[in-house]
Amino acid sequence: MKTILTAAAIALTSSAALAGTVALDKAAEGATLHEAGIDMSLYWTEAEGGFELVATYVTDETAEPARLVMLLQDGDNVTFGLPDAPDATFKFIRTGDVVVVAGHTPRTELVSN
């Protein structure tokens, strides 16, 4: 069942290239993600109103770790970039008891007439 939920969460991502992906399916169980010069440690805990995801990361440009904390409710799908990392964005997806974090490299779309 966890595999199906993880696959469903990844399928929710856009058609842009996916790089490193981490699926967290247990509270307080950590994982690491290494993508586009960013090293990120991740875990979630149960909180009032959802799962609280904690991501501690460093980039090639920063020596000091930064921390990102967000509350994810079932069905949330959020994409954004991090300071000092212009070449990558990250997707944070919660489906049931699974939180997926994926490095996401935006693809340049060409338009012609």
TrEMBL record:
Top-rank lineage group of the source organism: Bacteria
Gene Ontology CC annotations of this record: ribosome
UniProt keyword annotation of Ribosomal protein present: yes
Signal peptide (UniProt feature, chain positions): 1-19
Species, as recorded: Mameliella alba
Biological classification of the source: Bacteria, Pseudomonadati, Pseudomonadota, Alphaproteobacteria, Rhodobacterales
Keywords: Ribonucleoprotein, Ribosomal protein, Signal
This protein's name: 50S ribosomal protein L33
